Amino acid sequence: MIVPGVPWWGVVSSAGSPVLLAGGWTVAASLQPRGFNPVADTISVLAGVGATDRWVMTWALAGVGACYIVTGLSLRPAARPGRLILMAVGIATILVAANPEHDGHGGSLPHAFWAAAGFIAMTAWPLAGRVRGLRTPYGLRPAVAACATAVMLVLLAWFGAELIAAGHQIGLAERALALAQAAWPLAVVLTCYLIPSYDRPAAT
Fold this sequence. Notes:
The protein has helices at 8-30, 43-47, 55-74, 80-98, 109-128, 142-165, 170-193; strands spanning 2-4, 197-199. It is mostly helical. The chain is globular, with a radius of gyration of 17 Å.
C-alpha cells in the first residue's frame, strides 16, 4: 500500500514549533524590566500575570500548540496513536497559554495540569508513532523512536527533580526539555519528507 509523505505545510508547521518557542522566550525575556534568569526562572513566568508584555510568550505558546496540531495532521506516515498524541499535546499547550500563572510564580492548577500533561504525553509520542518496515522513514523506526523517548525521559526526570527540590536550574531544565520535544517532530518530518511515498509498514 502506497502512502503519501508529509506535505510541505507539515514541514512549515514542524519548523515553526521550535522557532516560536525559542524565539518567544528570547524576546519575552529581553522585555522584562527586572533581571530575568533563564537558568532559574521558568518559561511560564514570562507568560504569567504580572510579567511585562506577557502577550509575547502567551502567543508564542499558543502558536507552538497550533503547530503541533497541524504537524499531527500532516504526519501521515506515522502510526495513528502518535499523530493523535501530538495533536492532543497541541491542545494542551494552547490551554497552558490560556491559563497563565498568577503573578508569574505559580498558583494556577489548570496551568500546572496542562503543562504536566503536555510534557508527559510529548515524551511518549515518538514510541506511539513508530512503525516497522525496511522502507520506514528513519525518524519513525522503533529503535530511533525508543532513543528519542529515552532522551526525553531523562530531561523530564531532570525537570521534575528540579521542581521537587526547588533547584536553581528549573528554567534550564524546562528549556532543554521543551526545546527537545519541539524539535523532534521537525526531525521526524524531515526524514519523512525525504521519502514522498513508501510501502506502509504495520504499526507496532
